[in-house]
Amino acid sequence: MEQSRDRIKKALAHQATDRIPIDFGSTAVTGVHCRIVEALREYYKLAPKPVKIIDSFQMLGEIDDELSDAMGVDCIGVTGSKDIFSHDVTHMHEQETPWGQKVLVSDQLDLTPDKAGDVYVYAGGDVQYPPSAVMPSGCFFINAIERQLPIKEEELNPEDNLEEFKAITDEELKYYRKSVDAACATGKAVVASFGGTALGDVAFIPGMGLKVPKGIRSVVEWYMSTVMRQGYLNEIFSRETDIAIQNYEKLWAALGEKVDVVLTCGTDFGSQESQFCSVETFRKLWLPHYQRLNNWIHEHTTWKVFKHSCGAIVPFLPEFIEAGFDIINPVQINAKGMDSKFLKREFGKYITFWGGGIDTQRILPFGTPDEVRQHVRNQCEILGQDGGFVFNTVHNIQANVPIENVIAMLEALKEINKTN
Q1: Which end of the chain has fewer CB atoms surrounding its CB within 10 Å, N or C?
Q2: Who's near 366: CB < 8 A, 6+ residues apart?
């Protein structure tokens, strides 16, 4: 039987594998909400313990080694020592969520609700500044609070939108080296999210890790800027790519082939029915910078490049392939035009589908277990032919998904892989 790392590498090389490769939890876009993680641990009769939060923005829980093995996962993720709120995740404490679950979170995150039931989050944990995010009462994840200062066109400075993109430090390299060594020792494929290459990912635009964010920090204003301020954005993307390549040079020297995949960008280009910009705008604003970064990675490393974009992205798939991306996620099969058979036929030779294993808008949350199992079988049959497919849901598994449906999905995968 193939080892997990070899299985993923064969899939990325578009070669048939001994079974369908699986990812749950290696990135912030292939994760599982902490409520579901706790329920899965109970189902597999694993020792109860507080779930470690690996992404506090979305409240994603850690798929640790014993749960990963139980679920048949082939990947393991590596991230930095600070999260999107600039919280140090190397020092954690146990706390209870507003829904009553015990979890481990950064010492700089306090999940205690106020009188209205809301939980406020502060950049760097510094409560002397206004909050940068909030978990509203009754919600299972955190939302950004926009703190857009008045915009004066003549005073806009690209450096203000680059404040969070910095040269990697020796301390951070040491942290990554230790984390990657531990991940590599598991025998699973190592998927690294180094950060610093967002290129307009709106999750990062509000600057939730900055105490006083400057520049363009409103998501609406940012989308308008893709038309109104293309020169400004191009300068930001160019400088961001410069910094990223300098950091990647150091990361490759420190980590080398122990890393298999790098998630470089989560900028969404698709909505449910259409796209956020034209292909022409993409080619003006993003393509040159994506190509420069991806070409450097392919010319100087063995890493495969992972691109996340939700939505109806069929018009952009040829552009992503031209840009040098090896992997597309989450493969939103429920968006307009995203038919699995069409995607596999037209693009399956050129890019790996990391996701698309199950519809998370209708089937996983609202279907019956039998419908879930049949849907998983169909998707694996279509996307799993001749490699180029890693099973994951269409984006993260959310807090309110029935656990019996998650189990049905995992059971179907085991049945498929046992047959294979």
Answers
A1: N
A2: none
